[in-house]
Amino acid sequence: MAPEPPLLSMSGITKSFPGVRALDGVDLDVQAGEVHCLLGQNGAGKSTLIKVLAGAHQPDTGRLRWRGEEVALRSPIAAMRLGIATIYQELDLVEHLSVAENVHLGHEPTTAGFVVRGKAARQSTAALLRRLGHPEIDPARLVGELPAAQQQIVSMARALSHDVRLIVMDEPSAALDPDEVDNLFRIVGDLTAEGVAVVYISHRLEEIRRIGDRVTVLKDGRAVAVGLPAKSTPTREVVALMTGRNVEYVFPERPTAPAQQDTPLLEVQGLARQGEFEPLDLVVHPGEIVGLAGLVGSGRSEILETVYGARKPTSGQVVVDGKALKPGSVRAAVRAGIGLAPEERKAQALLMLESVTRNVSVSSMSRFSRAGWIDRRAELGAARAATRELSLRPDNPSVPIRTLSGGNQQKAVLARWLLRGCRILLLDEPTRGVDVGARAELYAVVRRLADEGLGVLLVSSEVPEVLGLADRVLVLREGRVVHRAPARELDEHRVLDLVMEGSPAS
Ligand SMILES: Nc1ncnc2c1ncn2[C@@H]1O[C@H](COP(=O)(O)OP(=O)(O)OP(=O)(O)O)[C@@H](O)[C@H]1O
Ligand SMILES: [Mg+2]
């Protein structure tokens, strides 16, 4: 008997956009029941490749075989009919429709040829949500009201509502905390046990070790390694393939002398928001990086947004340079030198229709305007300097920001605050979606900014990141600080214990 052909094989796939060759002759084969990981730096072409696979982009050249037979995926529907489902990096749900409507969008359940709406759709959605380990999500809720992690579950329910043979996940874990990642991996395990193939994209190498079978590495639109064993290929080798150099995944050194302790830059005094977080006191001195560790839902983002003035506190105040800011005023916060790089960058931070330049300069426009005229050369020059500092790709700030890869969009948000010259930087999940090589650069930039006298308040779900980058750490659980310590006195286990079941600090 001839050996089974792979479930999917792509060969010689190329795809160009104006000025960029995103894919340049990529080969990929995926077997039924395997987890095939795609790795590569920001802009390497991962999302473009899976959009070709999802029928969302038409390749310029190349072939696709499905169970040995050549197919053309002319539309997302064609891919869906074969049993290919995709969970995108930037979720594509309709916010003003309910969970059940999103799950069944384009293929309402039918009985005897009649579309069944309402109750039947809600019941089948509820069954899918149970299977995904999230029975608490109400199928009748509007998707726009759900937090990011639950929206992703909805996206997954939509994928499973079809008879799926191959499921593609583009950075699914980026918005999840450790418990939810475990749940995701359980789902992946169930699917592969049933013979479903999974194509998995992540910047977290430890995840690829945990669930991956094989790894394909993309670099500059080419597959530089195809189908390496996921568990046994040394990290050094994987990183070298991705970056073309040897990068150490290291954190910058902390200054030998601790930051000046007598003149706080930022003081948060008894700040609270009812139902979100309890009265919080903290100080950030110039030169200091303070980290907030905690699970999704522990109030971390809410705290940053309240300090930034985007939410009004129920009590307490934010003090900069000894002066209390008007509560709930972003304008007052920005004027005092506070900058926020938010978690949901697409929805909250980016002007998707504008260029990279404008996205970077938008908070510093007064520097480039004279009597109503914008000095575009100065604006472009400044944006270019800020984006180079973060190795943003492509190295052309005139392109629209929506054409950038996920990780590079994130870098643009950070470049904005670099340019703004703010003195207090609030960073919410700064490396979500940022590749290994660029992370090290980003950490170095943040530390350098601190060395130059900035104060940084950092939130991250990745405990090693908080411990590696921050000087001092506050551990949060359900809106309350349960522990405070210098970062070097903590380790990952201790922090995870505290965030899961810590008792309040005395
Ligand atoms: N619609 C588009 N128009 C123009 N250029 C695009 C478009 N989509 C992607 N690109 C470019 O193609 C290249 C590959 O992007 P892609 O989104 O596939 O990267 P990625 O590997 O998914 O990166 P990340 O890890 O940051 O998400 C990038 O240079 C990107 O700017
Ligand atoms: Mg991507």
UniProtKB/TrEMBL annotation:
UniProt membrane topology term: Peripheral membrane protein
The record's PROSITE patterns line, in alphabetical order, gives: ABC_TRANSPORTER_1 (PS00211), ABC_TRANSPORTER_2 (PS50893)
Predominantly, its location class is: membrane
What Gene Ontology terms describe what this protein does at the molecular function level?
ATP binding; ATP hydrolysis activity
Q: Gene3D superfamilies annotated for this entry?
A: P-loop containing nucleotide triphosphate hydrolases
Every ABC transporter domain range: 8-245, 260-503
User: InterPro entries in the record, alphabetically?
Assistant: AAA+_ATPase, ABC_carbohydrate_import_ATPase, ABC_transporter-like_ATP-bd, ABC_transporter-like_CS, P-loop_NTPase
What name does UniProt use for this protein? Sugar ABC transporter ATP-binding protein
Q: Where in the cell is it found?
A: Cell membrane
Asked if ATP-binding is a keyword of the record, the answer is yes
